[in-house]
Specification:
The protein has 469 residues and is of the alpha+beta class. It has helices at 23-26, 36-44, 52-56, 65-91, 95-98, 101-117, 128-144, 148-158, 165-194, 223-242, 262-282, 308-314, 324-331, 334-340, 366-369, 382-385, 421-430, and strands at 213-214, 217-221, 248-252, 258-260, 290-296, 352-359, 435-441, 445-453. The protein has two domains: 23-215, Alpha-ketoacid/pyruvate dehydrogenase kinase, N-terminal domain (Butyryl-CoA Dehydrogenase, subunit A, domain 3, Up-down Bundle); 222-453, Histidine kinase-like ATPase, C-terminal domain (Heat Shock Protein 90), CATH 3.30.565. The strands form two sheets. The chain has a five-stranded mixed β-sheet with strand order 3-5-6-8-7. Helix 4 packs antiparallel against helix 6. This is Protein-serine/threonine kinase.
Length: 469
């Protein structure tokens, strides 16, 4: 059973029949051979500057049939060009890198997904049967690219002799951020489909329950609930690996809610808690709880505010204490900022939150502090890649994005993985104008500030104004 929605307790349930993609079902999807001309033509077209207004423009579920068609056609108008841009970007890598089996597999996955969209390229979805079939294509796309991060990590690790670390970092910053948007667009339509009713005569399903969700966006997301859920999972991993289970306390305003995407917050919090728990246990400080503070951001930002760094200032992070080099690392290049802005908040000023995660894990060793935003394969040699104590004595801020204990790639006494956790977590945060900043007190502990801007106040339509539903 394919699950593309958040694991959070109040999220939409896992996809049920008919929107499931088994290998046998995938073989029946209509495809069209992708030519070099197709890729060149689509990759030459500019990407639509998508905003979250676009994702909620079709209304709150359950949607009428016409609204579902509009959602499907809008999704179809965006994805082929985005996939072609990714294929072209991969083809611009050195040939020997693309020839790596893992990188080649991802290239093939993008070709497959584009081949399933091309038959729809010159069509307009106007019937429930077509919308249902198109949603199957979206489910296949999400399923096909589910393991992209882990596969790319291993591919670039094996090919690191043939591509420089700056080239790898530039490619991955762009590629992984673009992947966030592509996946979000597909999952939004799937979630709207699953929470709507017009297709129930074709495939009867239970009546959808009233929900605070509009697609994958939870208009009443409570960060404290996500933190507790992630705490349970990470604590179990720690207990399995180390035999101890660190504790966590939440203070600040645990009842605060705002509009955001639960699965993004889950990923970020899971990675940050893995870092904090591992550092706490390995330093023998498990009796000291990890402290999480939830602090809502002011709705009106101060004058001349800009992006995630400003949000972090509102979270009481002293930017003046940072060097120019550190700020350059945190804000990235203009190209990366542009990539991160392909989906923007509903408004420049939207409610948001700063979450501080504080541990007593000894801080980050000065020799490693400058490396915390790097992908591990850009700095590890073959011996270091297997060294369990590279980040010992500090929060393992290179911990892998779900690639360690869960997939069996952790080693030694460490639950660190392939080094994607923190960089990708920051990409998720920055995608909507937030950010992550780290303050380390060597020999004591680490404070991580996660700033998230909400997607804005979404007006929910009255039940009587939904096309007669």
């Amino acid at each position: 059973m394919l699950r593309v929605i958040s694991r959070h307790g109040r999220s939409a349930t896992a996809l049920r029949h008919p929107v499931t993609v088994q290998s046998s079902r995938r073989a029946h999807l209509q495809t069209k051979t992708v030519t070099d001309d197709d890729i060149a033509q689509l990759a030459a077209s500019p990407l639509h500057p998508l905003t979250l207004t676009d994702l909620v423009r079709h209304g709150s579920p359950p949607l009428a049939a016409e609204q579902l068609y509009d959602s499907a056609n809008f999704t179809l108008s965006l994805l082929p060009a985005r996939l072609a841009h990714r294929i072209q970007s991969m083809r611009n890598l050195p040939y020997i890198v693309v020839s790596n089996p893992h990188v080649s597999k991802i290239h093939g996955n993008y070709l497959h997904s584009l081949s399933t969209l091309l038959p729809w390229a010159k069509r307009k979805i106007t019937t429930l049967e077509e919308e249902l079939e198109f949603t199957e294509v979206m489910a296949d796309l999400v399923h096909t690219h589910a393991n992209t991060i882990g596969t790319l990590a291993r591919g670039f690790l094996e090919a690191r002799r043939y591509i420089t670390p700056p080239e790898v970092t530039k490619f991955l910053d762009e590629h992984l951020r673009a992947r966030i948007g592509t996946r979000l667009i597909a999952e939004q339509h799937i979630a709207l489909h699953m929470s709507s009713q017009p297709h129930k005569e074709l495939c009867p399903e239970p009546e959808p329950q009233k929900s605070s969700f509009i697609g994958v966006i939870d208009t009443c997301l409570r960060p404290a609930d996500v933190i507790r859920q992630c705490e349970d999972m990470v604590a179990e991993l720690c207990e399995l690996k180390y035999g101890v289970r660190p504790s966590l306390v939440i203070n600040g305003e645990p009842d605060y809610t705002f509009a955001h995407i639960p699965m993004h917050l889950e990923y970020i919090i899971t990675e940050l808690l893995k870092n904090a728990f591992r550092a706490t246990v390995e330093r023998g400080m498990e009796r000291e709880p990890v402290e999480v503070t939830i602090a809502p951001l002011p709705e009106a930002p101060p004058p001349n505010s800009s992006d995630g760094i400003t949000n972090l200032e509102q979270g009481n992070l002293d930017r003046a204490s940072k060097t120019d080099a550190m700020l350059e690392k945190e804000t990235h290049s203009p190209a990366v900022r542009a990539a991160a802005a392909t989906i923007r908040p509903l408004a420049e000023s939207t409610p948001g939150v700063t979450i501080r995660i504080r541990d007593r894990g000894g801080g980050i060793a000065p020799r490693n502090y400058a490396r915390i935003w790097e992908y591990s394969f850009t700095t590890f040699n073959e011996e270091e890649a297997e060294e369990p104590d590279l980040y010992h004595g500090g929060a393992s801020l290179g911990a892998g994005g779900g690639l360690d204990v869960l997939s069996g790639s952790g080693g030694g006494s460490s639950i660190a993985g392939l080094g994607y956790g923190l960089p990708l977590g920051r990409a998720y945060a920055e995608y909507f104008g937030g950010g992550i900043a780290v303050q380390s007190l060597w020999g004591w502990g680490t404070d991580v500030y996660l700033s998230l801007r909400g997607v804005g106040k979404v007006e929910r339509k009255d039940e009587t104004n939904r096309g007669g539903q």
